[in-house]
Design brief:
The chain has helices at about 5-25, 30-45, 50-75, 80-95, 100-115, 120-135, 140-155, 160-175, 190-205, 210-225, 230-245, 250-265, 270-285, 290-305. Helix 2 runs antiparallel to helix 3, helix 3 (about 50-75) packs antiparallel against helix 4 and helix 13 (about 270-285) runs antiparallel to helix 14 (about 290-305). The chain is about 80% helix and about 0% strand. The termini are far apart. It is globular, with a radius of gyration of 20 Å. It is mostly helical.
C-alpha cells in the first residue's frame, strides 16, 4: 500500500473532528470511535512512503494516541490513558515534534492533577516546558505555566502559584498570530480566564478564602466566553464558581450555579464533571445548617450516583 499526504490529511481531519466532539460531549462520546481508528493508523504506518511522509504520519498517529489518552482519562480510566500517552510520547519523538510532546506532557500532568498528585504533575509540566522551549511555542508554554500554577496551588505554595500564573498571560500574548495546532487550539483567552479562576479557587479552598475575590470575576468571564463547542469546560468552570460562592457564604447563588452546572453536565459523557463535584460537596458540608446546603448536597449525591 502506497501512503501519501492525502491519506494523512484524512486521518488528521477525523482526529480534529473527534477532538471537537470530545470538548462538546465528553470523552465517552468518542472513545470507541478512536479505538476503531487505532488499527487504521497502524496499517498506514506499515505502508510504503517517503521519509518526509513517514515523519508526518508518526506525528499524526502520536496525536491519535494523545487524544485517545485524553478521552480515556475523561472517561475515568487513568491506567489506559497513561498507556496511550506513553505511546504518544514515543511517536512524537519519532516525528521530531516538540510542540506535540509538550502537549502530551501537559495532558499527562493534568491527569495527575485531577487525581491530586501535584508533585508528579509538576514533573510532567517541567518536561513539557523544555519541549515547548525547543519548539519555540509560547502558547504551549502558557498552557504549561497555568497548569504549573494549579499544581503549586494544590501544594499550598502561594508564591510559586501566583508567579507561574503571572507568566501564563504574558506567554499567551506572545502567541497571538501564531499558527495553532489542533491539540492546543482549545487554549484561548477564555480558557486563560478559567485557569486564573481555577488557581485562585484552589488557593481559596486550601490556603486563604480571600482568593475567591479574584476567582469569581475570572470564572464568570470564562463561563460567559465558552460557546456551544466547549460545553464540558463551561460545566467544570461553573462548578468552581459554585465552590467560590460557598466559600463566600452565598449559598443561594452557589446552589443556583451548581444546579445549572449539573444540568449541563447531565448531557456530557465525562467522569471529570462528576469528580469535580467532590470539592463542592466538601465545601457545602461545612454549612449543612443551611437548607440550601442540604438541598445542594442531595442533588450532588443524586447526580453522582446516576452518572
Amino acid at each position: 500500500m502506497r501512503v501519501g499526504q492525502a491519506d494523512i490529511d484524512r486521518l488528521e481531519g477525523v482526529i480534529a473532528a473527534l477532538r471537537a466532539r470530545d470538548y462538546r460531549e465528553g470523552g465517552g462520546s468518542c472513545r470507541e470511535l478512536l479505538r476503531v481508528l487505532e488499527p487504521y493508523g497502524a496499517a498506514l504506518r506499515r505502508g510504503m512512503m517517503s521519509d518526509t511522509v513517514a515523519r508526518r504520519l508518526a506525528g499524526v498517529v502520536a496525536d491519535l494516541h494523545n487524544l485517545k489518552g485524553w478521552t480515556e482519562f475523561d472517561s475515568g480510566r487513568p491506567v489506559r490513558a497513561e498507556q496511550h500517552f506513553r505511546r504518544a510520547l514515543e511517536l512524537a519523538a519519532e516525528a521530531g515534534n516538540d510542540d506535540l510532546t509538550a502537549n502530551i506532557r501537559y495532558r499527562l500532568g493534568r491527569m495527575y492533577l485531577h487525581h491530586r498528585s501535584p508533585a508528579e504533575a509538576l514533573e510532567h509540566f517541567g518536561l513539557g516546558q523544555l519541549a515547548a522551549l525547543r519548539a519555540g511555542s509560547p502558547l504551549s508554554q502558557a498552557i504549561l505555566s497555568a497548569n504549573e500554577a494549579w499544581a503549586y496551588a494544590l501544594l499550598g505554595d502561594v508564591r510559586q502559584a501566583l508567579f507561574k500564573l503571572s507568566l501564563a498571560p504574558e506567554q499567551f500574548a506572545s502567541s497571538v498570530g501564531d499558527e495553532v495546532p489542533s491539540w492546543s487550539a482549545f487554549f484561548t483567552a477564555t480558557d486563560m480566564a478559567a485557569m486564573i479562576g481555577t488557581v485562585r479557587t484552589e488557593l481559596a479552598r486550601l490556603v486563604d478564602v480571600r482568593h475567591s475575590r479574584d476567582a469569581i470575576p475570572a470564572l464568570t468571564e470564562a463561563i460567559e466566553g465558552y460557546g456551544p463547542d466547549m460545553v464540558r469546560s463551561r460545566s467544570l468552570t461553573m462548578i468552581w464558581l459554585a465552590v467560590d460562592h460557598v466559600l463566600e457564604g452565598d449559598l443561594d447563588r452557589a446552589a443556583e450555579v451548581g444546579l445549572s452546572a449539573m444540568e449541563i453536565a447531565d448531557g456530557i459523557r465525562s467522569a471529570r464533571t462528576r469528580d469535580r463535584l467532590r470539592p463542592l460537596s466538601e465545601c457545602v458540608r461545612k454549612r449543612v445548617g443551611d437548607i440550601n446546603a442540604r438541598d445542594l448536597l442531595d442533588r450532588i449525591a443524586t447526580f453522582r450516583a446516576s452518572a
